[in-house]
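How a chain folds remains the central question behind the approach discussed here. This step matters because it turns folding into a mapping between discrete strings. The sequence in question and its structure tokens are set out directly beneath this paragraph.
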Amino acid sequence: MLTRRLLALVLLACSAVVVTGGAASACPQSSPSLGQQAKSADAVFTGTVSDRARRGPGIHYTVAVERSYKGDPAEQQTVSTPRAARACGLPHLDEGADYVFFATQDGGDLTIAADGGTAPATDARVARVERLLGAGTSPTPAAPVEATFTPVGGEPTSLARVAAPGVALVIVGLLGLLLAIGLGRRRPDTP
């Protein structure tokens, strides 16, 4: 009788592990406060989703950035997120909609997550972000390509210096001609 009770307890414990183990998710159920999200983000900005592309295991959004509150996003910034919501991704942002993005740096890319703070840019949410981080700035425009001129030589050469070798050749040629004419006149005539 004791073994049956012990066996029933073991089966009950195992079934509890199986039931609770299947509900686990990579994304925490409770979100940190807006202040904590702003502190842990590498970039906080508002913008409009202008394009959505599915590449590899993620979704890549192109965002037309309007205001930057933290970090240095470009005017057209790409952010990525996991494709699945259970992986803490935000795969369903709407094109043409405005959002407040809380992004973290992942190598050279900015990524967003469901628990990171990214949400629609309501007046109340933007006001809360501005209370935390200030009024923000315009996004960084793309750096213009700047031409550099490198001088090839020193000062420009004067005309006299450029013409001198040519003048010397003309003089030598004329002297040679005069010498040839002079030698031609001195030659005795032979019958």
Summary: The helical segments are 2-21, 34-40, 123-133, 159-186.
